[in-house]
Amino acid sequence: MSGFVEPAPTATALMLLGRGTDADSEKGVDCPGELPAPSDPGLVERARKAKDALGDKLFILGHHYQRDEVIQFADVTGDSFKLAQQAAARPEAEFIVFCGVHFMAESADILTTEAQKVILPDLAAGCSMADMASDSQVRQCWDDLTEAGIAADVVPMTYMNSSAAIKSFVGERDGIVCTSSNAKRALTWAYERGEKVLFLPDQHLGRNTAVREMGFELSDCVVYNPHRPNGGLTQQELAEAKMILWRGHCSVHGRFTLECVEKMRQTDPAVNILVHPECTHEVVAAADYVGSTEYIIKTLQAAEPGSSWAVGTELNLVRRLANAHPDKRISFLDKTICYCSTMNRIDLPHLVWSLEELLAGRVPNQISVDPETTKWSKAALDRMLALP
Ligand code: SF4
């Protein structure tokens, strides 16, 4: 069976690999500490020594999109929600080192006890999608919906990939959080309680779930653009819409195009196209299989030996799956590199630095959500956890 074919590097590959900065998508600032050099040959040994010395006090979580050099030290791997749940299930762990991005570390802090400290090895590991919906923008949107006379009919709902402030906003207004695995169940819950849904911040997950899984028409959805007065919508458009989508997207999954799908099918007519619902509607409509990160992993595990797959999700995960299943032909849907640049900011030097700081009695880069935000975010998360 042929091995995984690496996509071609692009001009921005170095930045995507986590070197340099990306001013549009950073959540925090540069790491404040003295980082070990990436070329230090002793990094793996240093990480292992520090991890062993911290023992049960330490629990390392690794998101599926993390680099292999970091994943090798994770006690558990998973998507953002599974990782937050895992952190909550380990109350004896005083330090939760979250190898992922900022909103994930916030969710872990919300769901863990006050005694537990959540650490993000690089504060600059944000999420460009989460950054597309700020608290003030969402409050302005709600004022616009109130002005249009429809706020009372709207249930707000936010994807897990949003800041704690947005989860809190939603929770305070009787709304709910969803993941890409339970978006249909959460939408069903919401439409039992209101005529319309305001879906934050990923327009593609909202549209794909509404149209593919709930039987809505594309014309039932409108897009609220926070950079335009009244979201760029008329009062009539707002009144007629069933689904008000926030104008946000994932910069990684948004890169896959219909052309990528068509080229794959021309090259290999037997190929199965498997994509994440954060991809655009036209890509999702042209794919054979659509689902969350966990769905993608399970689908490839269960696939027939010899079958061919082109996968539209983050490159670190696709490469890891291709290496784990050498009996199947697994390729990356795009022809060029497509990492999540902010996820990739967490590298071995940052992990080593965080662990050695903990060992020295200092808590670096702690992510702490204030009590009021925690209270309402948790209300929205608890509604999701109670979904049938
Ligand atoms: S892959 Fe997309 S949604 Fe996930 S952290 Fe990166 S930018 Fe955010």
Automatic annotation (TrEMBL):
Function: Catalyzes the condensation of iminoaspartate with dihydroxyacetone phosphate to form quinolinate.
Cofactor annotation comment: Binds 1 [4Fe-4S] cluster per subunit.
Catalysed reactions, as listed in the record: iminosuccinate + dihydroxyacetone phosphate = quinolinate + phosphate + 2 H2O + H(+)
Stored HAMAP family: NadA_type3
Positions contributing to iminosuccinate binding: H63, S80, Y159, M160, N161, S180, H276, P277, E278, T293
Species the sequence originates in: Natronoglycomyces albus
A Pfam family: NadA
Highest taxon of source: Bacteria
Annotated signal peptide: none
UniProt-annotated location(s): Cytoplasm
Record protein name field: Quinolinate synthase
One GO cellular component term: cytosol
EC number: 2.5.1.72
MF annotations from Gene Ontology: 4 iron, 4 sulfur cluster binding; metal ion binding; quinolinate synthetase A activity
Keyword Iron: yes
